[in-house]
Amino acid sequence: LGVNSDKTHSVGKLCATDGKNFEACLQKILRGDFRVQYLNRMKLVFNGKPLKFLILNDLLASHVSPAAMSHYLLKIGKGTERQRSSGVWVSTAAGSTAAVHSAGGRRLPAGSRNLQYLPRELFQGHGCRYRLTGGILKPGQSVTLVSQMQEGRLYLDGAHRSMPFEYGDEVRISNGAPLKTVCFSR
């Protein structure tokens, strides 16, 4: 049950209630007047080791400085491409309504198990021609990123959780276990 604890600073899109309405929502739950929604999450394998937490919304791989160009290898299926850009987003359906959508991606239905990837502002100079410019990954598909940066960073579900993504580091992103959430009919 998601509870938005600070509506003045948090959008709380996935929260079913807030402190003001919590008691009424709890009563609905006790009466069985709710439904369950499953939200896709991403699992990450970093340098061959699975991370212990799952990502609900999105991942951004980029240079630590927003003014610097991000360099990485993007691998999807049998395709591999060296890219230079402002970074690359990977999102779940829950994350597709936020930063990825603002960057030009598609909104996915809330219950979708698809993932979406979207490079940001691909460098177009020196005859660069990219094939992997964004798309939808079906369940069972994954995306792999290999850092070509000395000072790269992975931002996980926003700016508050991040980790180094330095030269040669590799992260494979695929579907993880869904999050079971409580919803109320509106």
Protein architecture, described:
The chain has 186 residues and is mostly beta strands. It is built from 2 helices and 16 strands. The protein has helices spanning 22-31, 99-102; strands at residues 3-4, 17-18, 35-39, 42-46, 49-50, 58-63, 70-76, 79-85, 87-91, 115-120, 135-137, 143-147, 152-156, 162-164, 170-175, 179-183. Strands 5-4-15-12-7-8 form a 6-stranded antiparallel sheet, with no helix packed on it. Strands 11-10-9-6-13-14 form a 6-stranded antiparallel sheet, with no helix packed on it. The chain has a two-stranded parallel sheet with strand order 1-2. 28% of the residues are buried. The mean pLDDT is 92.
Layout of helices and strands:
Layout: E1 3-4, E2 17-18, H1 22-31, E3 35-39, E4 42-46, E5 49-50, E6 58-63, E7 70-76, E8 79-85, E9 87-91, H2 99-102, E10 115-120, E11 135-137, E12 143-147, E13 152-156, E14 162-164, E15 170-175, E16 179-183
Parallel strand pairs: 1-2
Antiparallel strand pairs: 3-16, 4-5, 4-15, 6-9, 6-13, 7-8, 7-12, 9-10, 10-11, 12-15, 13-14
Short description:
The protein is mainly beta and 186 residues long. 8% of the residues lie in helices and 40% in strands.
Which labels suit this protein?
single chain, six-stranded antiparallel β-sheet, 2 helices, 8% helix, elongated
The side-by-side strand order for the widest beta sheet comes to 5-4-15-12-7-8
| Estimated share of beta-strand residues | 35-45%
Mean pLDDT: 92
- Give me the strand/helix succession: EEHEEEEEEEHEEEEEEE
Helical percentage: under 10%
